[in-house]
Each structure stands twice: as structure tokens, then as C-alpha cells.
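Render this sequence as a predicted structure.
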Amino acid sequence: MRNSITIVVTLISVFACGHALAADSKHKEAAALLKQKHYAEALAKIEKEIGGGAHDFAAYQVRGEAHLELGDVEKAVEDFSKSLSLKPTAKCYDDLGICYRRLGQPEKAVVNYSAAIAIDPTLAIIFHNRGISYQFLGQYDKALKDFGQALKLDPKLGEARLERAETYRRMGDLPKAFLDVDEFLRLPPNEITALGYNLRGVLYKKSGKPEKALADYDKAIQTNPKDADFLVNRGLVYEVLKQTAKAFADYDLAIQISPTLAAPYLARGELSSALDKFDAALKDYKKALDLAPTNTDLHFDIGIVYRRTGKYQEAIEEYNKGIKANPTLAWGYELRALAYTKLGKKDLAAVDEAKAKELHSKTKQPVR
């Protein structure tokens, strides 16, 4: 299904972790190693200090930051919690909030960011971090308020301006999103500038200006040529511009760079299906489903390929899986009804058609 592809937006929130508020303490050598991004060495150093009897709040905070940067979020939670039990600090509550955001628990993240703000309401980055969690929860008004406060405290905090632009995009307010991303791109270039070009490309594509979107994606890729999401986005614009060879080239390169990312397989599968390259489409859809099993729309994509190649029973089996995962999706019943009709099972088709009609009436889903 063509509408199962969405523009990939790489959020700046991935940068808001760890050392935005790195601990400054008497454990200067370990803290310096953290700042230099020598995380394993920092962990070894602070482990030695703790083993030698250093059990102050800062020791556990430094160790927690090392664990967080090395990807051991559960151990980081333990250390930050221990540090807070010894001395509550805004920095440590912020770190704990980052941990919970990474663990997919935004409500707990908000609680900890709020505790950090209660201790020190002057730190812009904490308002930014809480805003990200509100954004994730779909509480856009609260997210906007936090990003606004972050920018009031630090007008040059580019990530807050970019996240506010993304929030406006999600709310459908493209003019305000453009204003923020344009302002962001006027800042001196830094390690996240490419994300600004990527987001503005998203906005231009949404606004029906694919040529301008393409120009921004080109800039994003020139700045960061190893970001597979940018390549997927540019490939989608090439499709709009009917430059399918370039679209395939971008999807192929994205897969080469990030072979475990589902998006380029899905995009390439959609393009192959649109060009009646069914074997290639089926292979890519199945790979995307292996990598992103929660994307149950892929069952319908696979089913459509089977139906279009005359494999109606196989199509029905895929539709069954999609409907089981999302029983309120009218489109799924419509697709299965078509396959039942091809097999001459008119009674079953009629049941599905009636169910689709009922769902359209109740949920106001668009007729496809």
C-alpha cells in the first residue's frame, strides 16, 4: 500500500543524551574521559575509584553516565538512582529521565525531568528534554511550551528550535515549522545541521515542492552521507519526480549503509510493486517485516502482491494476519473481500464487505 510509507524524520532527540549535563565532580579524571568520549576507559577508572571506597553521589553519577553512553541503560538507571538517594541533583534527574526515554517509558522520563526543573529551572536543556518526551506522548501543547522555555533560556539551543519545528509539523502547522527550521539553519553549522536540511526537505515535500525538497535532501546527504534515513527520503522524492533509477540507487545505498533498517526495504518494495516487479517487491516486504514485525501493514502489502500475481489463498493468509493485528481497519476487510471474490467465495466476501462498511460508518475511515 503506497500510504504505508511515511517520510522518515530523524529527530534531534538522539543527541540529547549523556553529556549535555555531564557530571563535574572530584572524579575529574573519569569525568574528563567521558567528555573526550572515551567511555570504556571512564568506566574502568570510576569502577576502580568506587572499588577503592569512593561511594559519594558523584561517583555513581559518573559511572551511570559511562553505562548510559555504552548502551547499558539498566545499569545506568541503577547508578543514577543510587546517586539521587545520596544527593538529589538536577543533573542526575535529567540523566535518569534520558534513561527512561531510551527505555520507551516517556511518562517516567517526564517525572524525572520535572524533578530536575524543580531543583534548577535555569537549565534550558532539561526543558528541551522534557519537551521531547511530551512530543512522544502526543502532548504537543506541553512540548511547545517546554521548547519555548528552552529557547527563552538559551536562544542558541538549536536542537530545541528544531524539535519545535518537528512538533509543529506533527500538528500540521507547516508555516510555523518552516519558520523554526529556517531560523535553525541560520545558526553556525554544527553536527546536527544535516537534520535541519532533512526536516525542511520533509516540509517541502509535504507542501508539494519536490524540487526544493530534493535540494535540501542533497545538502543533508552532503553533510552526512552515511545517514540511511536521508537517502530514503531523497529516494521518495525521486519517485515523485519520476526518476525511478535514482530512487532505486538511494534505497540500495541506504540498505548497504544500514542493512538492519526496515525503511529502505519497504520503500524499495513499494517502488518495485508499483513497477510490477513482484518477486523483488515480495522479497523486500518480507525483509522489512522481519526487521519491523510491529509494522503489521506489511501483511497487507505482501497480500496485495500475492493477489496481483493470482495467489489468492496466500493473499488471504496475509490479510488474516493483518486483520488480527488491527481488527478495526476497514481497508483490510476490503482487501480480503476482493481475494475471496476471486476464489468464488462470495458469502465470505459479503461478510467482509459488510464489516468494512460498518467500520467506515463508525470510524469515518476514508474509502480507498
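Summary. The chain is about 75% helix and 0% strand. The longest helix spans residues 346-363.
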